[in-house]
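SAMPLE LOG
Freezer: B-3
Tube label: C17
Construct: single chain, 792 aa
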Amino acid sequence: MIKNLLLIIFISFSIYASSQTASSEISVNSINYPLIKSEFLNRLNKLRGDQKLNALVSDNILKKAATDQAAYQNGKHLVTHNQTNKGKEKPQSRVFYYNGTHDFVGENCIRIPLKKAFKAKYKKTEIEVKTYADAAEALFLGWKNSPGHYKNMIEPSYDVSGLGFSFDKDSSFLYCTQVFGAKPFVFGIEYVSPPDAYGILESTPSVCQLFETNDARKAMKSLQLVYGDDSIFIRSEEAGLLQKFFNKPNDAIYFDILQRKQFVCEKNNLLHGSGIHDGKMLQPVLFSTIFKRSRIKDGKNLYASICKLPKQLVNNTKNDQLCYGFIKNGYSCQYIYPISVPDENLNMLDLYPKWIYIQNLEIQPDSFKGKLSFTIPFERGEVKLSEQKKKQLKNKLEIYKPFITSVDLQTFSSIEGSTQVNLKIQEQRAANIAEIVKDYSSNPLNFKTQATENWDDFFALIENTEVAYLKKLSKEKIKERLRSAALLDSLDYLLRINRTALLTVGITAYIDNNSNPYLILAAYKKSIEEGDSLKSFANQNKLLEYVTRSQFESRDILPIQIPLTKKFLPHITNYLAVTVKDDELFYSQFARNIALQAAKIDENYLPVKFNLCIISLKYLNIFNDTLIPLPELETKMNECFKLGTYDDSIIVNHMWLNYSILSVYKNWYRHLYHNIDKHLLNVKKYYPGAHISEPEAVKLGLMFNTYARYEWACELLLPYMQNKTKNEDLVFLFVETYASFENGAIPEADWIKYLKKAKKMNPIRFYKWIDEKNYQLLRKPLIKKEFCDIKE
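STRUCTURE (predicted):
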């Protein structure tokens, strides 16, 4: 019976409320709050529409927070934005209390008397609120004529709002609160964060200004996070400064999980309203704990695990990402969201040796009767020439065909495998080459195999390499070790040097300036054997011309031995330059030995000294060992600045640039992070004088990014951007790097221009750059506009 009575009363009230209109008189015993809300929102949204702003949509959570505050004001008989109740102290706190995640929270509060005349600031005469239209108008005008409240009414950032009311019958005051906010993102239950953010307080200048000291900046600049397969690590080359700065018991680092769905092309991104985090905040990790976990105990470097990678992020960075922040003395002082900046470590740019070349130097006509030798390389187990090698051999034989008087062939094999098998392979290789040669010579092919394995060459090749320890083993033990596929593959670059055939062609020919380069090679050999340095230099000079035209293989000049005497130093300079540019030849110890010997012939001859330095750098890079002691190398490199021409100064700067890059890489590889900075400064010092190319600038920019020198990368790339480069990789590297910090180094108009240029060059690449890895860049209005224009 009681239930039926309640139902009748509810139905009656509903019918009564629905029959009321804006002009209906308010009954203080049964106020129709939805009608006041409707009338008020009509006025408010018309005002926002006149301002070209979006209409506000009602939000149930904000309504709860507003109603709570209205009731609190009623209970205290005052208008205020604060509360003394725990967890409800401020407008944002009350939104969190009701499980809201809204960002940009604002609040308007007011009280108006109902059915009682009162004086309003915006009107000269007294007014009285009798109808629902009167109530809505009093709320609207009361807030509209108050600057702070009006600012909330027309704030562009707001998407939603909630209205709450509480009436005091004794005083006839209607307390009203409106809470504003951005559209919220509804997190799944696994993403719920504690309302008090683990007790961490929002940023305060008195504490957070400590991050602006020089030591703090240096410490923070050195800090890098490393994401492993299932854990997060921290590394720094300034461990001492970090420990000195993060010295309070509650100094910590914390992580915040954000989702791709929070970043949209609507006006506001869907971020959590907390002043500390934007998504799901994880438990902070104390720095005192991190320091104890360091795997390096030298007091200079730090490398330690922070925590396990949240399971949501394992192989899922496209949908979820980690932001992180630093806590100083209990206050959140810095919040950093990830931006994936392209990076790639670099051990060395291309090496540029010194060439001695005289343009338009003609060779003297001469006759040649003698022999020329050519090396034919084979892959492991290969008995037949590949089509490419076969074509190269046929091209040479075609040139010599009219002049051939004899053909000799000797085959060699590397030391792996049994001697019997190696001899069989040599015979098969010889038969394959003989089949090709017979079409070009009527003379029989003289064939000889090497009956023994060339251990002397092998031992010389592995000298000062990582496998030099093999010299201490017996030959049988070495062969046994080489049965390991991993070791065999790692040594193939050395073993293949002896896996060759040597084809020697006897020819008789007349040679002049217009002869084929492979005939000029014969003239070069003859002049070398006769000790004529001037004639041989002219021949070598001409051959180098053909090399630049890709009409002659530079390696074919190397079998001709140059006398190690002073008058042949220009020839030796070019010989060394050839070996630098041929990786396979460089692995032979002979070129390195010639460089060392030639440098002693005349220590004041700078071209040879320069190429010795270049070879030493390449040796250090490949073998991780010094051809000459580093102090001596640096002395020789400095002496090379005495080379006189402007072009010489460029290649010397380029050599120092490579030495600095290699020094950075070696210290990084050894985890000696505290040594890296001085070498990076040298990289920055030498690249302007090295006149690097656009592809080199890209590589160097990627290296700077590897070491978090993002501003350096942009400083390097900006001149190319200003010169309207058409290199897509360079444009995207600049844009993707500058977007990570935007320090105002370029005017906003130029930044917009460069964004548009990248987008025009490759819209798909531009879209993927944001959508797949860097969606948090949608926090930035300029980037958001360009991205969302593509999406539309």
